[in-house]
Amino acid sequence: MSGNSCDQIKQVRTIKPTRRSISGVMPFRAAGGVPYESLLERDFLKRMRFSHRVFSVVAQPVAINFCDPLGRAQTYTPDYLVYYHQGEADYREYIKPMLVEVKPAYEWRQHWRQWMGKWKAARRHAREQGWSFAIYDESRIRGLPLDNIVFLERFDRLAFDPEDIEMVLKTVREMEIAPVHYLLARHFKGIYRERGVALLWHLVATRRLECDIIEPLDQFLELWVPSP
Question: Cα–Cα distance between 153 and 26 in angstroms, integer?
Fold first, then answer.
């Protein structure tokens, strides 16, 4: 199984343009596009799109009924549902779909008592569905990994000689893991080094090579070919 059964869940609330924040649609692999309605949600989607583990993301996936502190019936729609590639993993390593609320830290800290009811309802609903539930703020979205992803975006659409690309991929396959400095020394010496650096970042940006995105993008970064 390549991913979870995401075709069962559809977007239940339409995200519309707003003057209070930035909204848009993030291109997301074969899924077309996933809408967002804040910069933090956009950055969350960038992190998810870059991850090889993520299969698909559904925006506004489910409406959950709950009672507010005054006992009034309310409906809460979490921001996203994330599905993961499972591949041939043993069932004990199965990655549960993750229901996600994206919220700036200052907001949830200010309103956590007011919002506790809906988040408890979301956790309960996720548990009933076999999912997990998580709140993502800046501390889980931004930082060096996102900075690296934004840096790599500039290399995404560059064009390179297919023979050079295959040459690099062949070397990495043979070695299984290869550091950037080795690939440059072997294939792109002297005046070709700058071109070689751009090609390597292009392969990482287009997901033909994988790396640990939490590490600095320097000559010591290790690269490998992603699993099918």
Answer: 13
